Amino acid sequence: MKVLLTTLSAKYVHTTLALRYLKTYVKNEFENVYIEEYTINNKMDYILGEIYKKKYDIVCFSCYIWNIEKTLILCKNLKKVNPNMRIALGGPEVSFDPQKVMEENPSVDYIMFGEGEETFKEFLGKQSRGESFEHVPGIAYKKEGKTYVNNERALIKNLDSIPSPYDDDLSEYENKIIYYESSRGCPYNCSYCLSSTIRGVRFFSMDRVKRDLSIFIRNNVRQVKFVDRTFNANKKHSLDIMKFLKENDNGYTNFHFEITADLIDGETMEFLKDVREGLFQFEIGVQSTNDDTIKEIDRNVNFEKLSKVVKMVSGFKNTHLHLDLIAGLPFETYDIFKKSFDDVYNLRPEQLQLGFLKLLKGSSIRVNEKKHGYVYKDEAPYEILKNDYMSYEDILKLKDLEEMVEIYYNSGHLKHSVEYIVKNFYTSPFDFYEELGQYWQLEGLFHVSHNKQKIYKILLDFYNEKVKEKVDLFENILKFDYMSQHKGSLPSFFKRISIDNMSERIHDFLHDEENIIKYLGQYEKVQAKNILKKIEVINFNYDILSLINKGYEKDVEESITTILFDYDKKTKVFEKSMYYKIKL
């Protein structure tokens, strides 16, 4: 019996933890179980052909909102080319109403719902012996044309009984994200989330977690993303893990956690002060700052405390912070969402993720959809179109705003230029991104792709049309942003500022040992011509670094300033380059 565990991931860098758990759980009893991962960007004919050619007896798909439609098409065509192939589905997208899924899709033979390890093992055992599935918890099956859905399976109490899906050979994860969990379940009951359907949190033992994390650290993996729904739900558990990671830091691997910020106490804050820059990355779900909305969706968030925590962690300059908002929640009009956006934006996280409400199968917000007049897409991911508080036109405007935030804020490429505009010419960050989105619409800029240089030019054109004040100063700030991100010659729309004998002065500067020690210590004993391959020296009409340090004051006098950009940074993660004001 040859079995395939597979899925269609959203991106190549993603890996599926569920498939690895299943394979590892049955490996001692069933050898011919294989994992193959594809992406939603692969051609469907390619995936179909690859699965068909390997002659599997059973194909099991892991189903999510981003892949369900293509997965069901694959199932239908696999049955056409190999009617004897048995097809099973699992995952959150088919677990809520397995009977309906099976009746609407004749090609699907089985659905496994709920926690899958024990169900999968029993499923393979029944298949290998040709036995009935009548008493197998957690499975839906067909018999003589009729669909049967068995009882749910009890959750595994001792998570350590599940073998680790990771061993010392991590070669398949090169340039990919590793997903990991130290707990299952969530202590909260948010109405838009499927985690609320399973109450309570179960933890893997600390010995088990540390063994697994040691494997990642030894192998110098790029990123480990914890999928714990609330990583710091148990302070001792989360702090012990973070302390272990700090003590065994390899200087390279990054660990991403979803946390609740207002659970961070003084002890944890003290610990976070001096961790390596880039060791941790925190994702914090704010979703809304409107009290009525928070109450309605059954969240328990103290935004005042959350804000204090975020500001303190930001002040350490060592941990990336990703804050999330959801548009389309109950009671949140366009103007109320604007306030939520400004509240979160004013915390200046490294990433501000603006998502749109998805009415997931089984979530309480979907069960009670009529209460707030929800209209949403019938197709996955079931995204909101409108409700009693926001029109579809409002949603479209927020879509444009989301794109502007991605390009001009989350990219980090134009942070000083955008900060200068927002602080000096807009009373609300939301107003800036809204007007920028409107500008893109009027200019037809959403309809074509743009290279990195064009993104800067568009912001310059927007500034010249909408702001018009101190254009030369703004162009210098924009030029600084560009050079801090990109080594190489300046785009043609930036002014070149020359001083006499520039090339000779740069060479003299690099031949002065004191300058190398002061600014470029890693290049000691390196020839000047080789240092030039790693740096750029650019002149500005203003002291840009002083302007930034003083909070982006617009009243600044002209002063020719030379800045050295060093792009050979090995440990910094918040900046693409290091930069220094120098004298030539």
Features:
Rossmann fold; alpha/beta; pyruvate-formate lyase- activating enzyme; globular; seven-stranded mixed β-sheet; about 575 residues; 20 strands; six-stranded parallel β-sheet; 3 domains
What does this structure look like?
About 40% of the residues lie in helices and about 15% in strands. The chain contains 22 helices and 20 strands. Strand 6 (about 140-145) and strand 7 form a beta hairpin. Helix 2 packs across helix 3 (about 70-80) and helix 7 (about 205-220) packs parallel to helix 8. The longest helix is centred in the last third of the chain and has 19 residues, at about 390-410. The model has no long low-confidence stretch (mean pLDDT about 95).
Mean pLDDT: 95
Overall outline: globular
- The number of helices is 22
Number of domains: 3
Largest sheet: 7 strands, mixed
Q: N- to C-terminal separation?
A: 74 Å
What is the SS-derived class?
Answer: alpha/beta
| Low-pLDDT regions | none
CATH architecture of the largest domain: Alpha-Beta Horseshoe
Q: Short description, anyone?
A:
This protein has 584 residues and is of the alpha/beta class. The chain has 22 helices and 20 strands.
Write the topology of this structure:
Layout lengths: L2 E7 L7 H10 L6 E7 L4 H10 L4 E5 L5 H14 L4 E5 L1 H4 L2 H7 L5 E3 L4 H13 L9 E5 L2 E4 L27 E4 L2 E4 L13 E4 L2 H13 L4 E4 L8 H13 L6 E6 L6 H7 L7 E8 L3 H6 L6 H14 L3 E8 L6 H12 L5 E6 L7 H4 L7 E2 L7 E3 L5 H19 L4 H11 L3 H14 L9 H15 L4 H15 L16 H10 L1 H7 L8 H4 L3 E6 L3 H6 L11 E6 L11 E5 L2
Parallel strand pairs: 1-2, 1-3, 3-4, 4-5, 8-11, 11-12, 12-13, 13-14, 14-15
Antiparallel strand pairs: 5-6, 6-7, 9-10, 16-17, 18-19, 19-20
Helix pairs in contact: 1-6, 2-3, 7-8, 14-16, 15-18, 17-18
